[in-house]
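Issue: ligand-bound run for zinc ion - logging full I/O for the record.

Environment: standard queue, default settings, no custom constraints.

Inputs:
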Amino acid sequence: MRAILLVGTGGVEALEEAEVEYPKLEPNSVIIKVKGCGVCYRDTLVRRGFMRARTPVVPGHEVAGEVAEVGEGVVDLRKGDLVASLIYVHDPHNPECKGEENTCRGNRWIGEDLDGCYAEYVKLPRWSLTKVGDPGKSPPEAYAFAACVVGTAVRALKTIARTKEGESVLVTGASGGVGIHALQVAKSMGLRVLAVTRSEEKAKVIESFGAEVIVYKDKFSEEVRRRTDGRGVDVALDAVGGPTLEQSLRSVARGGRVVLIGNVDPLPQPLMLGLIILRELRLYGCLNSTPRELEEAVELLKSGRVRPVYRAIPLEEEKVREAHLLLERGASLGRTVIVP
Ligand SMILES: [Zn+2]
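Outputs:
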């Protein structure tokens, strides 16, 4: 079958088109015909060697597809079923993992420890998959980023920040793959959404999802405060990380919560500790989503309360390399999804 392989670490030339072996079916696993494979910032970090991966490996952890074959022991999926995957493989028998599967010790990461979805087919265990069934208002390939994008926003807002209806939330990187969907998840929960972007052009798209947009050059916290009667927002979802974290901390109210859901800069960042202490801020990390949050994400996409924003590209070396470069420049609007 055709695939894009990550053959080492470095520039985009480390991504090579190749003919690889069709996966071998095993008990409790499923072979999926890939309908969509999201290209994630994490993929670029892996490629550049900032995250551990075995090479050569088929990258890509954002999987949606049709069941092509079911292994022994899989009783509730059939050929042709549309499924969406978590981005990792956990141990379903470890009681420590229950409900916290995303941070469980021993997790293996799809597209890093295991072959991923930059390919025509991928093999995954049943417990990493959620059955989508009828895709409803979103196209099948959009379920590729149900776990890593929509599910992460669900986890950040509900499980971690425990937002309540009527609260206000700031989303950074609002036109990016994570941001544009996170702000829709926030809207679906009845939150007031302020979104920041550097791009005047993209502001219109963000606005069309019901967010109040702030276009900024270097700083946005003063404008956030101005729009919240000087108080600041209750929660900031920071999808950018290093470059925006200080401004996010300055944008939340006393006792406010800042949840880090992405980071474009893998190097250490200076942090104003006084800012956190004096205003009793809470800074949280959020690592992707659990099976429960993935199910919620799938429902949001099915019902159309979250409308997927993405562009499809073919499974071709040149296109995939381009998508990586676009992500690194922060120039993409929404997600890029490989549709083989
Ligand atoms: Zn991802």
